[in-house]
Fold this protein.
Amino acid sequence: MKKENSAVQPLSPFDNKIHRMGRISTLIVWVFFLLVPFAVCMVFELNVDWILTIKAAAPIMLIFAVTGVCEKLSMSPIIGPGAVYLASSTGNIQNMKLPAALNAMNIMNCEEGSEKGRVISIIAVATSSFVTTAIVFCGMLFLAPIMTPLLTNPVVSPAFDNMFPALVGPMVIPVVLKNLKVATLPVALALILALVLGGIYSSIQSILMVIIILVSLAVYRVAFKKKGSK
């Protein structure tokens, strides 16, 4: 039996540049995010109780940290690191950026994860960010007085509350059908845990997501080794 080649492939100059620019831009975005509360505290001379702030923020940070890591690990092989850096800085990844990147690759007949697909994803996410910002700005100026009564209408508001679950199906089903063998185990585990845990599932889904990913990776690694040894 031949010894497996475990050497890590070096990154291309394009990938190195993307990671360098992504790290720098992410740090800049973090600084600007933190400047807003610090500036408010300084201008209005507010005293912050850091112990209470940490106690209130820790559970939220734990949940979103796990979700964020899982999100980045799952998206990077599909849309590439450049689009992930850009989407993470501009936000609204699941609803806008990821569908825009997937749709752009589909229109351009690009394979997910390919070099061309990664470039197309960066352009799609950047375009989506500009368009979203422009629409939100115009809506804030002109549509807020008109849309507020509509969005708060008790008949219409449930539709907007369930917008994300409605988008999950069209986003997930094509990926599952395209990689049915790979997706069967994690999807089945998630469905089983949701049925067994019931209402508790939504409160700990970020932790369960990590467990499902690790279990799936372990099972596929064992299956891959058995297949390679035959």
